Amino acid sequence: MKVAIITSGYLPVPASKGGAVENIVENFIIQNEIYQKVTFDIFSIYDEKAKKIAIKYKYSNFNFIKPNKLVQIMDKLIYFFFKNIFKKEKVMSYRYIMQRLHFLKKTSRILKKENYDKIILENHSTLFLVLKWNKNYLKYKDRYYYHVHNEIKSSYGCREIMKNTKNIMCVSNYIKKHVENFLQIPNANNVKKLTNCINIDEFGNINEEEKEKIKEKYQINKEDKVLIFTGRLTKEKGIKELLLAIKELKQTPNFKLLVVGSFFFDTEVKNDFEKELQSIITDIKDKIIFTGYVKHEEINKIYGIADIAVLPSLWDDPAPLTVIESMASGLPIITTNSGGIPEYAQNGCAFIIERDENLVQNLTIKIQELLNNEEERNKMASISKQNAVKLNLDNFYKDLLNNIDVSI
Residue 336, Cβ neighbours under 10 Å: how many? Predict the structure, then answer.
């Protein structure tokens, strides 16, 4: 059986430049190498490193679509104008417009030419254009599926095509409710939850020698407790509020905050917000370590030296992998009541803080509480590990196939 997976056209799969959705798609591919139930055809933006990685997968084929020079130049010009002339806040929305249109048009033509048993659209609702164009929605009637990771902002003229999706798989009940409201199909039988999972075996098993090497790399003292923040350095992730909380704790000895991430994954794109963060930490530089972008295959080692995960998301985060990774690493978590986070950080593994005017103060209080209370840290860490057990790739792969009507 041939199953096409249409990725966003932003970042490549395999996930050589990072990206939560891209890593999730690669997890499908990895498990399929074990079970060999289908042949995946992955549609991805071209990347030289991703192409080299893709060779190792025997049960997945890759359609790497490369934008030409004109497309690349036009994208840079569009980005420049929206960033510097129009001063758009969410400027990344304008970075790869032409690249994605080029990607979608080429993908649509391939879908028309080829014949797939199933099609999975990954996350962005613009991907429905590959079905609208060339009337592929007729050709693939009852054979296309939608995997939703974030809130849908627009149907791009494809609302009826979206409604007729065989199954819409949502990463949390929060997103499930949003999709039903957006499409005005309450309690629809074709809108279902597909819980995010990770390769939990990669986390929580770092040895003491490796820990010492990593701490030495980042100049962390043996007696220091390590707080970890992982994610993109954007306003909605709450990193600014976390740094402000750390300023309140600057007299507290023997701890470091490890900030793991960059503005836009492993790309050259930077923003002014990172400069703002640097200005905040002028008097607490001894407490803060910025790692920059860390490759996915190395992130488990970074988690391995941490004592507490702090993930103060300001937006309605649907189902962040960082929460699952923190649980799999056996970490107590401090996070916020946002989106689907409470669905994952359950049973007492996390302090869940409201996103209100007291957020910085409450972050400060909870960080101090966990730094001072080893017994509480250990109790929450144990619950985290228990929570993560069921969020494994085996369950994920089987649930995915069940949702696209493939028996296993």
Answer: 27
Length of the chain equals 408
What is the C-alpha radius of gyration for the chain, rounded to an integer number of angstroms?
Answer: 22
Residue 408 lies in a domain: no
Is the preceding peptide bond at 332 cis, omega within 30 degrees of 0?
A: no
226 and 374 part of one domain: yes
Residue 200 is classified by DSSP as: G
Q: 282 burial class (0-12, 13-18, 19+ CB within 10 angstroms)?
A: exposed
Give all strands (DSSP E) within 66-214, no chain letters: 118-122, 144-148, 168-170, 191-193
Whether 44 and 170 map to the same domain: the answer is yes
Domain range holding 275? 200-388
C-alpha–C-alpha distance, residues 231 and 290, integer Å:
12
Lookup: tokens for 30: 């990895």
pLDDT in tens, 338-397: 999 999 999 999 999 999 999 999 999 999 999 999 999 999 999 999 999 999 999 999
pTM value > 0.90: yes
* Beta bridge mates, 45: 65
Q: Which residues of 111-138 are buried (b: 16+ CB within 10 A; e: fewer)?
A: beeeebebbbbbbbbbbbbbbbbbebbe
Q: Which letter, b or e, does each residue of 161-187 get, where b requires 16 or more Cβ atoms within 10 Å of its Cβ?
A: bbeebbbbbbbbebbbebbbebbeeee
